């Protein structure tokens, strides 16, 4: 057994003990769970929004929903995986709500001029991520979700299906359609794909 396996088992063991104590009424046990997983949840939720105040709300929503659903956790998979499912659901709900508002984000002209003047290899990674995020905001929530899980989080088709509740075939089809739509957005923006 490797070091990663040992760490994972210890973390799972601590999670299970803290869950048991939380369900018994120990608030500090839940605080330990939050502290242990907050960084990963925050990173995942950053993929759903770049707005700092909305990001904080989404992270809080994940932990509130986790707390209220804690009794339903069956421990068939690691707590971290269950938390990822909740995070994905919270982020997806946010995207769906936001898409109903029909706000199409745009990239300021000066940013496009700067991007188009630079070779792709020399583009600042943060700037490129921001542009990608803005382009992805123009996609329907379902497309954004599959692209985020498959290509940004590098999840397998099986993991993506499990997190979304879709079939593996649906994940593959949705990913193909979403990639095609994103490619069209890049092409219409003047960037080379």
Automatic annotation (TrEMBL):
GO molecular function, a single term: sigma factor activity
One family name in Pfam for this protein: Sigma70_r4_2
Residue ranges occupied by any RNA polymerase sigma-70 region domain in the UniProt entry: 33-100
GO aspect biological process, one term: DNA-templated transcription initiation
Domain of life of the source: Bacteria
Keyword list, A-Z: DNA-binding, Sigma factor, Transcription, Transcription regulation
RNA polymerase sigma factor 70 region 4 type domain ranges (all copies): 131-182
Family as reported in the entry's similarity comment: Belongs to the sigma-70 factor family. ECF subfamily.
Alphabetized NCBIfam families for the sequence: sigma70-ECF (TIGR02937)
Name under which the protein is recorded: RNA polymerase sigma factor, sigma-70 family
């Amino acid at each position: 057994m490797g070091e990663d396996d040992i760490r994972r088992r210890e973390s799972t063991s601590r999670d299970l003990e803290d869950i048991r104590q939380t369900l018994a009424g120990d608030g500090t046990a839940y605080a330990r769970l939050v502290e242990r997983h907050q960084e990963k949840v925050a990173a995942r939720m950053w993929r759903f929004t770049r707005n700092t105040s909305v990001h904080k709300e989404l992270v809080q929503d994940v932990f509130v929903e986790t707390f209220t659903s804690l009794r339903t956790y069956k421990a068939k998979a690691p707590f971290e995986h269950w938390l990822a499912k909740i995070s994905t659901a919270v982020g997806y709900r946010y995207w769906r709500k936001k898409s109903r508002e029909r706000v199409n984000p745009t990239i300021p002209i000066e940013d496009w001029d700067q991007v188009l003047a630079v070779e792709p290899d020399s583009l600042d990674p943060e700037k490129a991520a921001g542009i990608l995020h803005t382009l992805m905001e123009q996609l329907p929530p379902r497309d954004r979700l599959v692209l985020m899980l498959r290509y940004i989080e590098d999840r397998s088709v099986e993991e993506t299906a499990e997190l979304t509740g879709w079939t593996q075939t649906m994940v593959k089809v949705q990913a193909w359609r979403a990639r095609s739509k994103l490619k069209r957005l890049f092409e219409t923006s003047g960037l080379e794909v």
